[in-house]
Amino acid sequence: MKHRIxxxxxxxxxxxxxxxxxxxxxxxxxxxxxxxxxRLMDLINAGEKLPFDLTDQVIYxxxxxxxxGNRVIGSAGPTTSxxxxxxxxxxxxxxxxxxxxxGQRSKEVVDAMVKYGAVYFGAVGGAGALISKVIQSQQIxxxxxxxxxxxxxxxxxxxxVIVVIDxxxxxxxxxxxxxxxxxx
Length: 184
What we know:
It contains six helices and seven strands, in the order βαβαβαβαβαββα. The chain is an alpha/beta fold. The chain has one domain: Alpha-Beta Barrel (fumarase), CATH 3.20.130.
């Protein structure tokens, strides 16, 4: 099924999504990779305020390239999500509603998604230059010293993603493997 969804991701929106659904996501998403996730966790552990409220937000695992010419942003393809798995269950518990990346997620992340209601979207790896065209604006909001891994607030319009793991734990990677195995 195809959905057009605006952020923030409410529980109603999350509950309507199923593994394999195609989504055009519009609105604000935040960027953060492993170095930024460690800093976010350090702030949480110190009882300090985060640079943005996690409630109903989406984090895109990307370290975009510098913007060429008059473009808003350079290539912005997804990075491997598993590198954030150590930090992700706590962020989901605190209200993070969605993640965009590529690759499998740990059992701990999927369990947190099911318990607290979150969704994991896949973006097409190797298509970073094309993805950058749906990013309308960007602003560094935290950890500028991390360069490309700084936390950014992006505004996106019709960002094409696929629901890889829905809030019920259904996993497109597992479903796909089972379907492919039936051909062998």
